[in-house]
Specification:
Helices cover about 40% and strands about 15% of the residues. It has about 375 residues and is an alpha/beta fold. The protein has two domains: about 10-250, Type I PLP-dependent aspartate aminotransferase-like (Major domain) (Aspartate Aminotransferase, domain 2), CATH 3.40.640; about 250-375, Alpha-Beta Complex (Aspartate Aminotransferase, domain 1), CATH 3.90.1150. It has a seven-stranded mixed beta sheet, sandwiched between helices. It has a three-stranded antiparallel beta sheet with strand order 12-13-14. A two-stranded antiparallel ribbon has the order 6-7. Helix 1 crosses helix 8, helix 3 (about 60-70) crosses helix 4 (about 90-95) and helix 3 (about 60-70) packs across helix 7 (about 210-215). It is globular, with a radius of gyration of 21 Å. The structure holds pyridoxal-5'-phosphate. Pyridoxal-5'-phosphate binds near residues 62, 199 and 201.
């Protein structure tokens, strides 16, 4: 059996090695490292894949969120609602821009934004909602769009984890995750479902005016060279990352299917075990399994975590601390009663190895090791 990785970047590289090596060499030969034609080429290919009018590449997924919020002209003191159970980047940029983060609880089944909690959190100062499509499936966008419409709010999708997932509207219409709200963002961090070989990110929108504004913000607020109309940032996707992404994009749907196949294997293996709840997929979305996350019931989660590590099975706790309890984001506005689900999830979730190169003997070894530990208790 091959050594098990949490994310197997090498196996994926082997399959596209000649194309990647050759196109990286071309960038070096052309010495067009920043804003070379390769960045435009990836941008167009990604727009076509997503079916969105505008992709604005940038330096990473955190910048993408920040630039999206700058582009919407949110002002200090505006309240921005997001979830308590996500990676800190989402709330970090809200705080950094001196907006007021308002954290809400998630649903136990989907790990995504709870719509009742969202509605309760709205005040006259609320300006935007940031749903996170956590672990690879979409939040309930139709409900979120309805709330946004009623209260005249922007919707910014943090789609760092669900690139390639489809949202299925109640009339059957499908749209790619990250292209549904006013603006969406994603990350090309190496371990994300579409990862480059360094940092990278992108912003997606169908709004022409907003796209124009965002293209200036990523480039020092310039719309004409050396004329700075707004305060901007320096956030670029470099040409080497763009060629890696262009090589991988044609495989993205295959990558999603490989992840789904691994998830199905896990689901089947754990189906009879009362102490394990396997991930569910909401009816309005496909799942691209950025993470495969179990909920444990009556099992010492941390002991299982240590046991798996001792058996050379990498695994991780996403996420161990609710954002409202993090030192940087604590606030006496928050009441523990408002985070019942997140407070529980941080105690009982564990994520197993999930990537496109998992082999049957590895999956068998992982599931057997988990089940042996649990049934021996
Ligand atoms: C990874 C991630 C980000 C940040 O992306 P970077 O490219 O690492 O800056 C933001 N939000 C979520 C939910 C993420 O998983």
């Amino acid at each position: 059996m091959k050594k098990i990785q949490m994310v197997d970047l090498k196996g994926q590289y082997q399959q596209i090695k000649s194309q990647v090596d050759q196109s990286i060499q071309e960038v070096i030969d052309q010495t067009a490292f920043i804003n070379g034609p390769q960045v435009k080429a990836f941008q167009s290919a990604f727009e076509s894949y997503l079916g969105v009018k505008h992709v604005i590449p940038c330096a990473n997924g955190t910048d993408a969120l920040q630039i999206a919020m700058m582009g919407l002209k949110l002002s200090p003191g505006d309240e921005v609602i997001t979830v308590d159970f996500t990676f800190a980047a989402t709330v970090e940029v809200i705080a950094l821009l001196k907006l007021t983060p308002v954290l809400v609880d998630v649903e136990e089944d989907s790990f995504n934004m709870n719509i009742e909690s969202l509605k309760k959190a709205i005040t006259p100062k609320t300006k935007a909602i940031v749903p996170v499509h956590l672990f690879g499936q979409c939040a309930n966008m139709e409900a979120i769009l309805a709330v946004a419409k009623e209260h005249d709010l922007y919707v910014i999708e943090d789609n760092a984890q669900a690139i390639g997932a489809d949202y299925i509207f109640s009339d059957g219409k499908k749209q790619k995750a990250g292209t549904i709200g006013n603006v969406g963002t994603t990350s090309f961090f190496p371990s994300k479902n579409l990862g480059c070989y360094g940092d990278g990110g992108a912003i997606m929108t169908n709004d022409d005016d907003l796209a124009h504004t965002l293209r200036g913000i990523v480039n020092h607020g310039m719309y004409e060279r050396y004329y700075h109309d707004v305060v901007g940032v320096n956030s670029r996707l470099d040409s080497i990352q763009a060629v890696v992404l262009s090589a991988k994009l044609p495989y993205l749907d295959r990558y999603c299917n490989a992840r789904r196949a691994a998830a199905e294997f896990y689901n089947a293996a754990f189906a009879g075990c009362d102490q394990i709840t396997t991930p569910t997929t909401s009816e309005f979305t496909t799942h691209v399994f950025h993470q495969y996350t179990l909920k444990l019931n009556g099992v010492d989660r941390n002991a299982l975590h240590q046991h798996l590590l001792s058996k050379d099975i990498p695994c991780a706790i996403y996420y161990p601390v609710p954002l409202h309890s993090q030192k940087a984001y604590r606030d006496n506005r928050y009441k523990e009663d408002d985070f019942v689900v997140t407070n529980k999830l941080v105690q009982n979730v564990i994520s197993l190895p999930m990537h496109t190169e998992l082999e049957k003997d590895q999956l068998e070894y992982i599931t057997q090791t988990v089940l042996n530990f649990i049934t021996k208790l």
